[in-house]
Design brief:
The chain is mainly beta. The chain folds into two domains: 115 residues, Carboxypeptidase-like, regulatory domain (Immunoglobulin-like, Sandwich), CATH 2.60.40.1120; 91 residues, Immunoglobulin-like (Sandwich). 8% of the residues lie in helices and 37% in strands. The chain is built from two helices and 17 strands.
């Protein structure tokens, strides 16, 4: 073969190899054995609803009364501990049924059982105080938020013990001799209601309601309650008494509305 023809053949082979290997300005070609990878934009985050921690402007008031024949309840006998007995110059009335004028009912725990967004409500750092005074728990009924401190005092300077009986929360049973004047606990779960008793003095008892929000109240001897700062919405309101049971009612409140619910308990 002439030298010129050999040189021309080599040049032609070089050009063909360059084209076959993608040697042009188009670099989008891919191999048959390697699938193309498609880049997708990042997915948008899915929005989630969280409970608001902003209190509303609605409020709820009411009165709780007892209807029917008032039972004769025996007075509390403290003779088993002379230290307790000498703290009282008058007979000690039972706290099982405490009535005011017109049979208004005290020691009723009233709370928003449903309709409130759970979680994210600010938990007060100030503790709820339960005192052992005159060999009785004061107050007899109280409420505390999940995570809020419950400070239990021993103002009697006598031997007591505090024994909680929850079904959901962790229980405690602590001796409080005269030298122990304070104990602090908190609760991790909503639970309405459970009892606290003293194993040393069997007549001593108190009731605690633990809620996930601040919308609760306890009636005094006038039977009245007020729950403020409610957001607009529909609520199931429950009124609880340790012996007579519960009463429930539903109410819808608008922003700024002052609602009213009264409850009647009978034997």
């Amino acid at each position: 073969m002439p030298k010129s023809s050999s040189l021309l053949l080599v040049q032609l082979l070089i050009v063909m190899l360059a084209v076959g290997c993608g040697g042009g300005s188009d670099s989008s070609g891919t191999s048959d054995t390697t699938p193309a990878v498609r880049s997708e934009p990042p997915a948008e985050p899915v929005p989630t609803q969280t409970a608001t921690s902003v209190a509303g402007s609605a409020s709820l008031t009411g009165t709780v009364v007892f209807e029917g024949k008032v039972p004769d309840l025996p007075t509390v006998k403290m003779d088993g501990d002379p230290g307790c007995a000498k703290k009282h110059s008058e007979p000690v009335e039972s706290e099982v049924l405490v009535l005011g004028e017109g049979n208004s009912l005290a020691n009723v725990f009233v709370w928003a059982k449903s309709g409130v967004a759970r979680g994210a409500w600010p938990v007060p750092s100030e503790p709820v105080v339960l005192d052992q005074q005159g060999c009785q728990y004061k107050p007899h009924v109280s409420g505390v938020m999940v995570g809020q401190p419950l400070k239990i005092l021993n103002s009697d300077q006598l031997m007591h013990n505090i024994h909680s009986l929850p079904k959901i929360n962790s229980s405690f049973n602590q001796a409080m001799p005269a030298s122990v004047t304070e104990a602090v606990y908190s609760f991790s779960e909503e639970e309405v209601m459970f009892k606290i008793k003293c194993d040393v003095h069997p007549w001593m008892s108190a009731w605690i309601g633990v809620t996930s929000h601040p919308f609760f109240a306890v009636t005094a001897t006038d039977g009245k309650f007020t729950i403020a700062g409610l957001p607009a919405g529909t609520y199931e309101i429950e009124a609880w008494h340790e012996k007579i049971g519960v009463r429930t009612a539903s109410i819808t409140l608008a922003d700024g509305e002052a609602g009213n619910l009264d409850f009647t308990f009978s034997r």
